[in-house]
Amino acid sequence: MAVLPWRWSFLALLIVSLGCQAAPSPPSGQTAASDTPDTAWANESDLIPLVLAQVEDRDLCDGFFDPEVAATESQVYVLGDRALVEVLCARAAYQMVYAYAAVASDGTLTPLSLDGFYPDEAGNFQRVSEPTVGGLASFDPSQGQLTIFSKARGIGDCGSFATYGWTGEGLALETYRYQACNDDPNGVQTAPDPENFPQIYP
Prior knowledge:
By secondary structure, the chain is mainly beta. It is built from 3 helices and 11 strands. The chain has one domain (6-17, 30-201). A hairpin with a 2-residue loop joins strand 1 and strand 2 (82-91).
């Protein structure tokens, strides 16, 4: 049976958090915006409001948007003369919805799409590009690499695992792994390391 893109199953699982969450600490290795010359933003804290002010007008979160979650849990990574902003659009039962944008030194915002693959009904993988992604994300500023584990169900035994590299302007797909769900009730009900899922790309 073909697996539908994450967004369709996600609609049924979307559970928005109530109340504010504690703001996370900045990731290690993050560069202070004040160290970057000639920027339109004085510091990293300026970037979150700048991006969130445009989320709804530009539909950055593709219909998934909890302003309280986004305001407290989005992240900024200053990378040279640009910044990568990770907008945490909403929380769900076992993963999140993210959107990404690049912000130039003059404050110009460019929404970023992320490439991935989904099997069609014949089982052939089709490459797609989407404005949001559901999953668990981690960005390593020192390597300029984003990893996203998208669970197809809560146990985490199937879904996709993708890595993206920062190009200086956007995020380029580097590797994509995909594991179909085993619907056999007698199948193994454990969650393997998603980095060991079958590789689809390259």
